[in-house]
């Protein structure tokens, strides 16, 4: 058995063929996060060739970090060049909204998230905008409106959105962000 294992390692590590180690690194990061050790997870990031690697069916490290509210890991992934326009990342930003992780939403916005992703559904997940309205999360709604209206006023400051807003506090935020009257 030991000889077989030795030959296996020699064949993979000494043949000159490059092996994709990202699955191993992704598993290590996930294990560190599950143990609550975000600092150790971050130390693995520099070894990855593809930080957009899907470690499980349509789940990226960004999704995992967002769901576990590991904002320092998200920062490290952003520095490494994670793709913010990927469909999975759009789902991750929606997960951050659903978990009311405002600091993560702000972090991703600060790093160039396209405002449209805040109003676009991600598969079976509601958009951040829809979630903020249905949950009554005024801080999330304000974050989305101020950022979204600043980047894409014609998509955020619409009559159809104004009609969806029933909460008085949200109407004031909408008016302020869009500088309109309801």
Automatic annotation (TrEMBL):
InterPro entries per the UniProt record, alphabetical: Ankyrin_rpt-contain_sf
Superkingdom of the organism of origin: Bacteria
Protein's name according to its UniProt entry: Ankyrin repeat protein
Phylogenetic classification of the source organism: Bacteria, Pseudomonadati, Pseudomonadota, Gammaproteobacteria, Alteromonadales
């Amino acid at each position: 058995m030991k000889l077989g294992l030795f030959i296996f390692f020699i064949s993979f590590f000494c043949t000159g063929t490059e092996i994709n180690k990202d699955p191993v690194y992704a598993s290590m990061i996930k294990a560190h996060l599950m143990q609550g050790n975000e600092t150790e997870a971050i130390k693995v990031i520099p070894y990855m060739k593809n930080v957009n690697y899907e470690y499980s069916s349509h789940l990226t490290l960004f999704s995992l970090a967002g769901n576990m509210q590991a904002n320092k890991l998200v920062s490290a992934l952003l520095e490494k060049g994670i793709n913010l326009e990927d469909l999975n990342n759009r789902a991750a930003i929606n997960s951050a909204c659903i978990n009311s992780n405002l600091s993560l939403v702000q972090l991703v916005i600060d790093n160039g998230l396209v405002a449209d992703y805040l109003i676009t559904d991600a598969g079976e997940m509601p958009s951040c905008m829809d979630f903020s309205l249905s949950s009554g999360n005024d801080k999330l709604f304000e974050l989305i409106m101020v950022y979204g209206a600043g980047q894409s006023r014609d998509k955020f400051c619409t009559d159809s959105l104004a009609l969806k807003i029933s909460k008085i506090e949200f109407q004031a935020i909408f008016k302020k962000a869009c500088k309109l009257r309801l």
